[in-house]
Amino acid sequence: MSQGNLELEQQPQMPPPYSGWQASVAEYFNFAAYRTTFRTEIVAGLTTFMTMAYILVVHPIILSDAVFLVEPRDLFRELIVVTGISAAIGTLVMGLYAKYPFVQAPGMGTNAFFAYSVVLGLGIPWPTALAAVLIEGVIFIGLTVTDIRRHLITAVPSCIKASTTVGIGLFLAYIGLSGPTETGGAGLIVANEVTKTAFGSFREPATVLAVFGIFISTLFIVRRIKGALLWGISGTAILGWVLGVAPAPTGIFEIPTFPSHLFGQAFVGLGGINGSNWIDFLAVLLVFLFVDMFDTIGTLMGVGTQAGYIDENGDLPRANKALSADAIATTAGAIMGTSTVTTFAESAAGVAEGGRTGLTAVVAAGMFLVALLFVPIFEAIPAFATAPALLIVGVMMMSSVRSIRWEDMTEAIPAFVTIFFIPLGFSIAEGLAAGLILYPFTKVASGRSKEIPIVTWILAAIFIARFVFTALRFG
């Protein structure tokens, strides 16, 4: 039994009877089929938001290194607004249209590529880089309408889907535990020149508080207290503020700054494509396409498996709607002035709290908008406070490892490589790529090439081409 199905069975057998507008909402999101309640969905949405609220600060910091039009403080505020609005748009479409509890926001990894490789590395103006993101989103809308992106998901072998779930769980735990204490991270995993990584030091107050958070979150989980992860995050953050380990909020309310220097710059960037940079522009566009496509596929499969959505054929129901939401979010985000918007693996935190319908996403989307009015508070939530939630989500996602046929080496090897490279390669896309390239190789080597769908061959070829392309183009 998968973790997703286990969690589903732990929810109430039937939601309580509703009337009026509540009955309409419950019917729209099909509460009865998912055996969920308003309280469960709201807590799940709040938990997911709290787990990824860091994006409101981290993403602007990364992009501000490449976008230097105005005074840094004003620019940072504009980038926070763009981050929150683009996340709200994508997540709202995901919740209302696809009806999944998946949350979207500007992606980590692609934002670093945007800032450091494209703008600062290649010297491409940031509006032109935004134009590449805009075109990427339009292309994805076309691929979704023609059903091509959905077939890419169904072509992924079951062992790779399960291993992606496990890999994402380890990835989230690694992110949560390895954040440097200098920037408010947990510091439980630190860099080491001899051993690459090592265990952190309890001399660091942030590390001690992260461990405290792990214990209280674990207590809440094993006692089956609703909202366990949310209470763990809140309690750890408040204790950090009280003890002075993390700066307390400097205020409560702040009027959002309209992103006048960012909005619509993607259209300006289209005019910046010329004979001298069109090759670089095309290269950048292809990398954005590759990374976003397979990051999204990996995340949808991983979190979808955890939630119990994947059917007996290995398909994600309403996959096209979920992919459409992703494409619309990327397009809208580019217009707003941010790098690629994608589905976040942190959505697993809400799923772990029992969120099963689009109402979870709607609540999270609303919180992104509300957060823009309370930036000083959310800005003050330290990374060590979210580390326990990410660790426990990783534990929950590990259960999918049982569905991998470890006795069959043609599936065990690709699955292990996928699990291994997602956290250690710090990329869902790279781990998925490694597994999908090895899968047809192991099947052919064992004389079982007939088990390989044609689309899987195409995916493997695309990934190989991507590795060759990026190696030649970006070194």
UniProtKB/TrEMBL annotation:
It is found in: Cell membrane. It is a multi-pass membrane protein. It comes from the Bacteria. Keywords: Cell membrane, Membrane, Transmembrane, Transmembrane helix, Transport. The chain crosses the membrane at residues 42-63, 75-98, 118-145, 152-175, 205-222, 229-246, 266-291, 359-378, 384-401, 413-442, 454-474. The keyword Magnesium does not apply. The keyword DNA damage does not apply. Its main location: membrane. One of its GO terms (molecular function) is purine nucleobase transmembrane transporter activity. One of its GO terms (cellular component) is plasma membrane. Pfam families: Xan_ur_permease. Belongs to the nucleobase:cation symporter-2 (NCS2) (TC 2.A.40) family. Azg-like subfamily. This is Guanine permease. It comes from Phormidesmis priestleyi.
